[in-house]
Write a structure and sequence with these properties.
The protein is built from six helices and twelve strands. The protein is α+β, with helices and mostly antiparallel strands. A hairpin with a 2-residue loop joins strand 8 (204-211) and strand 9 (214-222).
């Protein structure tokens, strides 16, 4: 007792134990128990992992759908499901079927299709959804990729299409009207090498092939430093649309290889390029 006031002092107070599942309150604020917090964190982690897995699954499914649309089986040797080539011994033939690629469904190629011979050990590889041009058919302004294949230690090959208005001012040109072989490679070279084309730095062998009233230009390019690799091959022609109102396109097979791949697979890659033909 002091100055007329009484002070109470608690001595030896016993701490009150709280069960882990019970919530405590501090000045009106609820304090979550440790076990509850751990449970919430665990559930939040599960939800995040589910969202990530779902997004990954949907992305993989979209790519798989593109592969299935092209009539190929990703990661499986083409010799296991494609028929033998009737013109090249030891090769198999890829021909996209009706409605099997974005350009065919969009009537860019109809009534045409194409043949491409491949070594049986090669495998189809995924084409990104944006690269297929599926979203902009039948009037894509940018080049797109139809299908891709690769051979282990032998290089890669893909079929591409480019609107001819990107190559010439002539509205509906044949490949000869786009230019002679030297002029055409100057225009399509960046699509073949992956970045640029320089005739002085990139020695190029050319060949003109005429068959069934259509002309093809064949190229064999030494392209050191190019994005697609130091060795590139291509076969290109132009294709008319299904009606007089439709665009023309350049359609080409493009092959690429590293130095080591070229040493072992040069002939296979050249055979792939030489086999490319339009069909009706």
């Amino acid at each position: 007792q002091s100055n007329g006031r009484t002070h109470h002092l608690a001595v030896g107070c016993k701490a009150v134990e709280q069960h882990p599942d019970e919530a405590a309150t501090t000045q009106g604020r609820v304090v979550q128990p440790r076990r509850s917090l751990i449970k919430q964190a665990f559930l939040a982690s599960l939800a995040a992992n589910f969202r990530t897995s779902s997004s990954s699954f949907l992305a993989e499914k979209a790519l798989a759908d593109v592969a299935a649309d092209s009539g190929v089986q990703i990661g499986i040797p083409v010799g296991q499901y494609l028929p033998p080539s009737p013109s090249q011994n030891g090769m198999v033939r890829f021909t996209p079927s009706k409605d099997s690629t974005p350009s065919i469904r969009g009537r860019v190629l109809n009534p045409f299709s194409y043949n491409l011979d491949l070594p049986p050990s090669w495998k189809a590889i995924t084409v990104g959804v944006i690269q297929t041009g599926d979203f902009c058919q039948p009037k894509c302004d940018e080049p797109w990729t139809e299908v891709k294949f690769e051979g282990k230690g032998a290089g890669k090959a893909k079929v591409m299409m480019v609107p001819t208005f990107r190559l010439t001012n002539i509205e509906k040109p044949t490949i000869e009207q786009v230019g002679d072989p030297d002029e055409v490679i100057q225009k399509i070279g960046p699509f073949v090498t992956g970045d640029y084309y320089d005739a002085e730095d990139m020695p190029t062998e050319t060949e003109v092939i005429k068959e069934n009233g259509r002309t093809y230009y064949l190229y064999n390019i030494d392209s050191p430093g190019a994005v697609n690799g130091p060795h590139n091959v291509a076969m290109v022609t132009t294709i008319e649309g299904p009606t007089s109102k439709d665009r023309y396109h350049a359609i080409m097979v493009v092959g690429s290889a590293t130095n080591s791949e070229w040493d072992g697979g040069k002939q296979d890659l050249l055979n792939v390029a030489k086999s490319f033909r339009l069909t009706s």
